[in-house]
Amino acid sequence: MHNRRAVTARTDWAAIAALYDGLVGLTPTVGAYVARAKACSHSMGADAALRLLDELPAELVVRYQPYWVVRAYCSLRGSDPAGAARAAEFAVSLTEDGVVRSYLIQEYLGG
Fold first, then answer.
1. What angle do CA 83, 88, 90 make, to 5 degrees?
2. Burial letters for 85-98: b for 16+ Cβ neighbours within 10 Å, e otherwise?
3. What is the pLDDT of residues 85-102, one digit of tens each?
4. Does pTM surpass 0.70?
């Protein structure tokens, strides 16, 4: 579905979200759930994606950096800049790659 953008000039996020629904049904990993929430943020909105993220058990996501990046992304688009900053700060603290860390700081923390 991502590759179809080269042909159609658009990304069918609803189809991608549906594919992730199937994936979490087959392989319910934290990565699949987080990716599903990110896809849903495009097709259903940031608040719907945040609800999906809220359903994940805290012990699975507390040290999972992509979760915090997606939470920051959705919080920012859901008009919760304070929540976005908190999530981004946590994502930065879990990020070992300097380039990624710099990007997150610039994108979410105004730095």
1. 100
2. bbbbebbbebbeee
3. 999 999 999 999 999 999
4. yes
- What would the pLDDT profile of 6-32 be if each residue is shown by its tens digit? 666 788 999 999 999 999 999 999 999
Could you tell me the end-to-end alpha-carbon distance of the chain, in angstroms, rounded to an integer?
A: 34
Give the side-chain half-sphere CA count within 13 A for 49: 29
For residue 92, give the amino acid letter. Answer: V
> Closest Cα partner for 83 from 68, 94, 98?
68
Q: Which amino acid is at 101?
A: R
Q: How far is CA 77 from CA 42, 50, 62, 74, 109, in A?
A: 10, 10, 22, 5, 14
Task: Please provide residue 71's backbone torsions phi and psi, each rounded to the nearest 5 degrees.
Answer: -65, -40
74, 83 Cβ separation under 8 angstroms: no
